[in-house]
Amino acid sequence: MLNKRAMNLKKKLKKGSVSPGIWVTLPCPLSCEIIAGVGFDWVMVDTEHNLFNPESLLHIAMAFANSDTVLLVRIPEKTESYVKQLLDTGWDGVVFPQTNTLQDAQRVVSLCKYPPLGKRGYGPSRVGNYGKDEDEYVKSANDSVICVIQIENVSGAEQIEEIVQVSGVDWIMVGPNDMSHSAGRFRDRNNPVLLDALNKIRSTAQAAGIPFSIGGGDTADMDKVIDMGCQLVFLGADTGYLQTTAYKALEMFRKTLKTKNSKGAK
User: Fold this and answer.
1) Cα within 13 Å of Cα(28), Cβ side
2) Which of 8, 25, 136, 157 is the most core-located residue (most Cβ within 10 A)?
3) Which structural domains are found in the chain, ordered by start?
4) Cβ-proximal residues to 120 (8 Å cutoff; 6+ apart), any chain
5) What are the DSSP E strand ranges found in the chain?
6) Does the predicted model carry a pTM greater than 0.90?
């Protein structure tokens, strides 16, 4: 419960390694327990666009308790109370969407850090093993908690040089779909304005030694994003795996039945 897995991921990224993970969008502890045993470096649970409640988030954290997979959560609102509840429950890190300015970055880092580095409220209940490991957890928490900022507006490129100087930003992710709207052509991923902003954010983050990724994606995008220098690579989502496997099973059944029927006709 001491976020050792988060520290291991940070060390891996610092060496320049490429790290695989997936989106989790289903508020189902059982499916998360299955994912926890697969061996991904990290998962990102998306509560921004999906229906999770405090109980389901607690149960998901419990499902990953004995896994080496780092547990990250993308939150719907950057509130102090919500962030500290998640961290105190045992989540390894928080993803902050729409973090587009220097002030945004400074604020969200502060929410993840205990004083004097930030203003995280004190109450490490479950994450401190209900008091048993509280001192040890608090001693390492400011180093271990992962703070991910997601830039989703092209204006973020204008302040990226200042943003990368914020101590405590562990990972910079861009959201190209939302960013495309601010570039004037919604969902046009080839818009030069969008591409210029993405490339500036990527190159500046990489020059500063901060891991970079593009939100979304699946196995079909692996080569492209790795060639771009993304250290954190999304390999799809739980819903995609479920749907794809179901389609393949049904397709296999239909082909098998067709083959048997054609043989029978002879």
Assistant:
1) 10
2) 157
3) 4-265 (3.20.20.60)
4) 83, 84, 87, 110, 111, 112, 113, 114, 141
5) 19-24, 42-46, 70-74, 93-96, 146-151, 171-174, 212-214, 232-237
6) yes
